[in-house]
Design brief:
By secondary structure, the protein is of the alpha/beta class. It has a domain of 221 residues: Rossmann fold (3-Layer(aba) Sandwich). It has twelve helices and twelve strands. Strands 3-2-1-4-5-6-10 form a seven-stranded parallel beta sheet, with helices on both faces. A three-stranded mixed beta sheet has the order 7-9-11. A two-stranded parallel ribbon has the order 8-12. Strand 1, helix 1 and strand 2 form a beta-alpha-beta unit. The longest helix has 20 residues.
Length: 326
């Protein structure tokens, strides 16, 4: 029996699909009244609960050999109400304790490359960077770093666990519309009027799901594995989107100083309109940060590989169109 928390998320639903293809017995752990469209029609057991409620986790983990813990909050907004901490940190602590209590044989925790301490530009980001919440860029980074340390504490208590750190994730089956999915949809609709300098490393969601499964089979307990793909500059991304959609790329490059001014007000604006933000001070900083990320350890020890980013972008656009998101 395999339990997947966060089974309806972008990585979660793709992981569940791959596990079903492998004829595994799957139990999806989801929030009550959660939209089941991402896993609709799949031959799986569904159990409702909340990672903030350890009793519901203990109930869901009964009889499980492997737990894939993906439930968490991804946000480029500040954590002013503490919700990120409750879900990402306290929720992960509860998962660790529930695994120990129910005798789960192996936990695979999906952290983030943002949880790692980022070295200066020119130095490769790899697993040796380690987790240090004090060096985090924002609430998301800090909570994922702290949660990763909770998993390491569980390992010290006898839990067999592996930590996975993906870079930026793109690809199809993006039912809840990720930040990059929002960008793609807005681009197709002609709503992107400007671009900014910067770059980041993106990896296909299908490759991440496969890497997670490989980690459950070949990953060493106590080890961290980065799953990264390919770095792309923002202007290059805009030009490629123009090529595959026929929508002209924006020609105006927004000055960084102007964006930084606007970014001070974007959290209030997006909260008011109840929409996902395209950029905040956090995301601007990320796009101008060190994004030279290595997945050599995962390649060598797990057999991980990633497809070209152009294929991932093209498949994302086609999936959004086929599913009437644009």
């Amino acid at each position: 029996m395999i339990v997947v928390t966060g089974a309806t998320g972008h990585v979660g639903n793709v992981l569940v699909r791959k596990l079903v293809e492998n004829e595994e017995e799957i139990r999806a752990f989801i929030l009550q009244s959660e939209d089941l469209k991402p896993i609709e029609g799949l031959d799986i057991e569904i159990v409702e609960g909340d990672v903030r409620d350890i009793d519901s986790l203990v109930n869901a983990f009964q009889g499980a050999e492997i737990v894939y813990h993906l439930a968490g909050i991804i946000s480029i907004m500040p954590d002013k109400d503490g919700f990120l901490y409750q879900v990402n940190v306290e929720g992960t602590r509860n998962v660790v304790n529930a695994c120990l209590k129910t005798g789960v044989k192996r936990l695979i925790y999906i952290s983030s490359v943002h949880a790692l301490k980022e070295p200066p530009k020119g130095i490769i980001i790899d697993e040796n960077c380690g987790f240090d919440p004090q060096y985090s860029r924002g609430g998301y980074d800090e909570t994922k770093a702290t949660a990763s340390l909770e998993v390491l504490k569980g390992i010290d208590r006898g839990l067999e666990a592996v930590i996975i750190c993906p870079s930026g994730i793109i690809g199809p089956y993006d039912y809840n519309i990720s930040q990059m999915g929002t960008l793609f949809i807005n681009y197709i609709n002609g709503d992107i009027k400007a671009y900014l300098d910067g770059a980041y490393d993106f990896v296909d969601v299908r490759d991440v799901a496969e890497g997670i499964i490989l980690a459950s089979k070949h990953g060493k307990s106590g080890e961290t594995y980065i799953l990264s793909g390919e770095k792309i500059e923002v202007p290059e991304l805009m030009n490629y989107l123009e090529k595959i959609t026929g929508v002209k790329a924006p020609s105006f490059k927004a000055p960084l100083w102007l964006l930084k001014i606007f970014s001070k007000f974007t959290p209030i604006y997006y909260k008011f309109i109840k929409d996902k933000p395209l950029f905040t001070g956090y995301s601007i900083e990320v796009l101008n940060s060190n994004c030279d990320i290595s997945s050599k350890k995962a390649q060598n020890e797990l057999g991980f590989s990633s497809r070209p980013i152009t294929e991932s972008i093209k498949d994302s656009i086609e999936w959004f169109k086929e599913n009437k998101y644009v």
